[in-house]
Amino acid sequence: MYQALYRKYRPTVFNDVVGQNIVVNTLKNAIKYNHINHAYLFSGPRGTGKTTIAKIFARSVNCLDPIDGVACGKCSNCLYSFSKECMDIIEIDAASNNGVDEIRELRSKVSILPSELKYKVYIIDEVHMLSIGAFNALLKTIEEPPEHVIFILATTDPQKIPATIISRCQWYSFKKINNDDIVKRLTEIVNDENIKVDAPVLQKIAQASDGGLRDAIGLLDKLRAYCTEKITLNDFYEINGEVNDDELKKLEKLIFSFNVSDVLSSIEKYYQDGKNLVQIVKQLMILIKDELFSHYLNNDDLVYDENELVRFLNLLNEHLVELKKADDVRLAVEIFLLHYINEHKSSESVAFSKEKQVTVKTDDVKSTYESPKKEEKMFSTETVIKQETTKKISTESVQKAKEQFRKYEELMLIRSKNTMIEAVKEELAKEVNNLNKLNDYTFDPNYGYLACELLDGKVRASSPKNIIISYDYEGMVDKLSNHFNNLNDFYSEKTGSLKKIAFITTAKWNELRLEYINLHKQGKQFEYQEEPVLNSLVEDDKINSESDDLINKTIEMFGDLVEVE
Asked: What is the number of structural domains in the chain?
């Protein structure tokens, strides 16, 4: 029966381990000088060697004649530990044995002496999956185990492990394996297996594996099955759902030429060809990052404006998680690109060359860019955006997206004003406390991102019905517009507060606060409004001074969190 490459080439001794020198050397010295701890915690990304090193350590610590901390592989204990009959090295999958009963059964067996070896070693994989009750049942055993027992806990998510467990273990953090080490190991495998492969393919595999050697070997195995002859770059692009470098640069040109129709056509083509659109977005991020680094480190010329490249790269990074989780990835990518192009296109191109005119050509588009003269003023991206906000959107999808966002902004503004009408200090303190409760959910796999997004904001005011939460950056508020109802539902469910939330920028909060003060100075206040689907924005009034009585009243209403200037 065929054996997968990652299993066939799994290290069996410390000297075969790749990319974890610090962990390996420390464990070898522990064996060499007989400084064996009773419990270890191995944490790190998947495919970096946690379970493999746990098994090697379990065999090495039981070796009768280790050489510099490495198992000899010849003694009776080594031979027994490698056999399938070995009963003294026990591997437990915590994902499927995560209950109290399973841990209690483990505790009842711990006191039994090893059948053949010096130590009975328990390797608990994915230990973060244990329930709180199971952790509590395990705690005392890990704290004071019998002398013949060693626990090795392995996890990809140490944040979920109680501090009481971590404090009783010797903790080793596994790092992602660098690309050079992965390529070196893959080269050894292809040579041993007589696999014909172009050298650049191994670099691409290492890059795609994101520091996980097991993933890299698995991808090589998949390519080997796909290609009966020599593995080429095109084979890699096909199997991994990516596009080649020329196609990627063409897409970049189309985006920064603000050519909506050709960008949509390209996305449609990738989708029909079965490409992985999220993977293409990652490729685009790496391409832009490499261009910027070459510019910063080697003074290479940029084809496109530096600020625009940085802005686009930042937006991609902010929205990558949302794109991955989208029910319809194609639609999410299209809307993201349409929104960016429509918001950033201008009569002045963002592409330039330092000394000469640059002409960008593709199959269907030709755009000419001119370098601005030194004495001419360069318009900032912010200025261009303001000039373009009134332009008509060229596609129906973008028009709907902008209309929806406009409704969202109006709703947040009206809700904020309604909140300030009835805001009281006691309600503010209550919601500040409620928001802090969400710290318990920051590492929850289902709700963690919602908790983090809410905790990034600051509660500014609260009425019996509504809350105002502000954020320092406009981009964050824009991002929340995509799922603000989910955020509100999550907040209500976890805090018990049934209030509606208004998400606004800190700058907008300061404007509303000043407007509120100005109205009260005139003996007026905001006019309460129902929350309609559409409403016109109210122009902010400016004030130059405010009375001491009004300041005191404002502090009484909004609490110490209000800053009166």
From this structure: 4
Residue linked to tokens 């328990």: 122
Structure tokens belonging to residue 415: 């809700």
Instruction: Please check whether residues 20 and 124 belong to one and the same domain.
Output: yes
The tens digit of pLDDT for each residue in 496-554 reads 989 999 999 988 898 898 888 888 888 888 888 888 664 333 333 333 344 445 555 55
Say if residues 319 and 336 touch (Cβ distance below 8 Å): yes
How many angstroms separate the CA atoms of 293 and 161, rounded? 38
Whether residue 269 is found in the same domain as residue 287: yes
Of residues 66, 35, 39, 73, the one with CA closest to residue 54: 39
| Residue 356, domain member (yes or no) | no
109: tokens are 């067996």
Query: What is the rounded end-to-end Cα distance, in angstroms, of the chain?
Result: 76
Q: List pLDDT tens digits, range 446-475.
A: 777 788 889 888 999 999 999 999 988 777
Domain identity same for 383 and 448: no
Q: Is residue 190 a contact partner of residue 220, using CB atoms and an 8 Å limit?
A: yes
Give the Cα separation of 39 and 403 in Å (integer). 58
* DSSP 3-state of 260: helix
- DSSP-derived letter for residue 528 is P
Q: Is residue 373 part of a domain?
A: no
Q: Summarize the confidence of residues 109-129 as an average pLDDT.
A: 89
AA identity, residue 202 = L
- Asked if residue 41 belongs to a domain, the reply is yes
CB-based contact 466:418 (threshold 8 Å): yes
> Of 221, 240, 259, which one is at a domain's C-terminal end?
240
Q: Of all helices (H) and strands (E), which one includes residue 507?
A: helix 506-521
Look at 63-72, 368-377, 397-406 and tell me which has the smallest mean pLDDT: 368-377
In-domain check, residue 287: yes
The range of the structural domain enclosing residue 227 comes to 179-240
Residue 55: how many other CB atoms lie within 10 Å:
19
Three-state secondary structure call for residue 530: coil
High-pLDDT (> 70) share of the chain, %? 83
* Residue that wins the pLDDT comparison between 101 and 206: 206
